């Protein structure tokens, strides 16, 4: 075993912080960052980086060989809102990249894979509150269809070829270091930037659009915990439900108002509202808690103070 770790999509919202954490844990030169574009300075300067298109199978193989990679975190994907605008491109990126990695593992060239799924695998016919691990899944977005299909393939490669693939269904991830790209849950980040800069925010989701969310540190912890758990503890090989906090734009605005009392929110729902309406309001993640000991740390209050602080500092640095 041993060998290095490759992050594909290392410059994105989650990839950036995941790469930095893995470098801290394993040593900078053990963790290879790759993306289709260069990313944050801290990421670029802390260890090896390769410009890599996640759909380029040959190039992925070359990088895996060059660095003697044994573990891949495939974080590249087109998210829900962007995917609706470029369905075929989203399908190609989200599916091809996964097959390239699954096949490498099937050939024995990788020991372990992390591939993120999403709450987007659920749809309007899924029970909305405390959505169970196993339930009706009829996603209506391109992104959701690609993630659900990916889950089926992960389970298939595990069952048929013994591929050690591990996955969680991320809720909306909230963070301030790297901006998110094209998701329906992005309002919960924009709101902090606008609250601090302008004291007001116009939400693209309606006031009562409740969605499952999580602060970045918890998402990184879950990702590393599931990858470090002994293989026999990972009983679900499609993807695990994962939950922390659920709230509506109205509730989040009220929490921000506790710190910035003049903050004003208004609502102009756009096409992303119907995506939000098709997703769960809250998630039952008992399986993840029981199987590999998942626990979250950030509640709404702690997330809000951390975000106000972090976004405040970032905006000051830029000024
Ligand atoms: N945050 C993602 C999105 O909104 C959900 O996985 O697309």
How would you describe what is shown here?
With 319 residues, this protein is an alpha/beta fold. It folds into 2 domains: 4-172 and 216-241, NAD(P)-binding Rossmann-like Domain (Rossmann fold, 3-Layer(aba) Sandwich); 175-213 and 244-282 and 298-318, UDP-galactose 4-epimerase, domain 1. Helices cover 45% and strands 16% of the residues. It has 12 helices and 14 strands. It has helices at 13-26, 41-45, 57-66, 80-85, 87-106, 142-161, 187-198, 216-228, 249-257, 271-278, 286-292, 300-318, and strands spanning 4-8, 31-35, 49-51, 69-74, 112-114, 117-118, 165-166, 168-170, 172-174, 200-203, 211-215, 240-241, 245-247, 264-267. The strands form 4 sheets. It has a 6-stranded parallel β-sheet with strand order 3-2-1-4-5-7, sandwiched between helices. α1 links the parallel β1 (4-8) and β2. The chain is globular. 46% of the residues are buried. Bound molecules: serine. Serine binds at residues 79-80, 118-120, 143, 170, 172, 183-185.
Main beta sheet, described?
6 strands, parallel
Uncertain stretches of 5 or more adjacent residues: none
DSSP summary, beta strand count: 14
The CATH topology of the largest domain is what? Rossmann fold
Number of domains: 2
CATH architecture of the largest domain: 3-Layer(aba) Sandwich
Helix content: 40-55%
Q: Cofactors and ligands present? A: serine
Gyration radius, rounded: 19 Å
Category by helix and strand content: alpha/beta
Overall, the morphology is globular
According to CATH, what is the class of the largest domain?
Alpha Beta
């Amino acid at each position: 075993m041993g060998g290095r770790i490759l992050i594909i999509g290392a410059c994105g919202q989650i990839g950036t912080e995941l790469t930095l954490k893995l470098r801290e844990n394993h040593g900078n030169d053990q963790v290879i960052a790759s993306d289709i574009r260069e990313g944050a300075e801290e990421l670029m300067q802390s260890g090896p980086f390769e410009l890599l298109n996640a759909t380029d199978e040959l190039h992925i193989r070359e990088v895996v060989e060059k660095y003697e990679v044994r573990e891949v975190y495939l974080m590249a994907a087109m998210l829900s809102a962007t995917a609706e605008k470029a369905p075929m491109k989203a399908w190609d990126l989200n599916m091809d990249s996964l097959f390239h990695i699954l096949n490498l593992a099937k050939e024995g060239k990788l020991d372990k894979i992390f591939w993120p799924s999403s709450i987007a695998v659920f749809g309007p016919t899924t029970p909305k509150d405390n959505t169970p691990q196993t339930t009706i899944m009829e996603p209506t977005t391109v992104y959701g269809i690609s993630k659900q299909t990916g889950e089926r393939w992960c389970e298939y490669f595990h069952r048929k070829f013994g591929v050690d693939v591990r996955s969680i269904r991320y809720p909306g991830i909230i963070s301030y270091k790297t901006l998110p790209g094209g998701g329906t849950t992005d309002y919960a980040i924009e709101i902090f930037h606008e609250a601090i800069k302008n004291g007001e925010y116009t939400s693209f989701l309606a006031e009562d659009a409740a969605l499952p969310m999580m602060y970045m540190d918890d998402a990184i912890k879950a990702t590393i915990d599931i990858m470090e758990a002994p293989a026999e503890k990972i009983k679900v090989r499609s993807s695990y439900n994962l939950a922390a906090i659920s709230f509506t734009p109205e509730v989040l605005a009220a929490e921000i108002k506790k710190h910035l009392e003049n903050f004003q929110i208004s609502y102009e729902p756009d096409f992303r509202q119907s995506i939000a309406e098709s997703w769960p309001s809250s998630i039952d993640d008992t399986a993840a808690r029981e199987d590999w000991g998942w626990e979250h740390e950030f509640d709404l209050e702690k997330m809000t103070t951390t975000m106000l602080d972090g976004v405040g500092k970032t905006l000051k640095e830029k000024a």
